[in-house]
Amino acid sequence: MNNPPRIFDRHSVRLHRDRAAAHLDANDFLRREVASRLLDRLGDIKRTFPMALDLGCATGTLGQMLTGEGGIETLVQCDLSARMADRAHGLCAVADEEALPFANGRFDLVLSCLSLHWVNDLPGALVQIRRALKPDGLFLAAMFGGQTCNELRHALGAAEGEIEGGMSPRVSPFAEVRDAGNLLQRAGFALPVADSDTLSVSYPAPMKLMADLRAMGETNAVAERRKTFTRRATLAAAAAKYAEKFADAHGRVPATFEVIFLTAWAPHPSQPKPLAPGSAEIRLADIL
Hints:
Rossmann fold, 7 strands, alpha/beta, globular, seven-stranded mixed sheet
């Protein structure tokens, strides 16, 4: 795309990640859970990857968890935030997912854990990732999906409409799993697969969820958001509405995180190809 929509303020995304970097290791329980599920998928693929890239590495969570597993010989890490990258051990660089600095055909594997949901031009970023892969190279990623923080979205929207007389984007728009496979195909990947997991985290109060999102660098960076601080009355009303609608018998509230997993390969002649339409020798109706 020549002029991709500006959904997110990438400067704010970087600032949020800079701010969270110093204490992320004490607040990365969700990232570690998603990384574990991502690496389970990698473990199912029995091959070696001489050169791999961790795109959006944060403070190096994936690299710490790999510890020589996954068939990876050399891992390059990069993040939009210099402060995040500085805290990751090993080979690390500062790089923007929207403008990758890597040569074509450089990597056997590209991993990305909870980074791509902040990209404005996701189809363009996927094209760059596919180009950075060697033929038959693997792309494996996890990103937040459309049902993420739906409880918080409902509570903030209702409170803002009631207190401030209107609504502004408070929770980021996320991709839907049904669209993810199509995006991989558009980017030129082969054998694309998209699936999702839903994680539910229990909190003692809605404000603890908001504090955790800030600590993870996942606060609002929508370009059209209000630039002023949220009123205390709005936050109090949102917390009350959140608890009223979603709290359990013990007063704890859930937070839903939908995680979309993407698996795809850079094209190569050796890969399986779909049969041409009408080439089947047995009719499905006869089998049934």
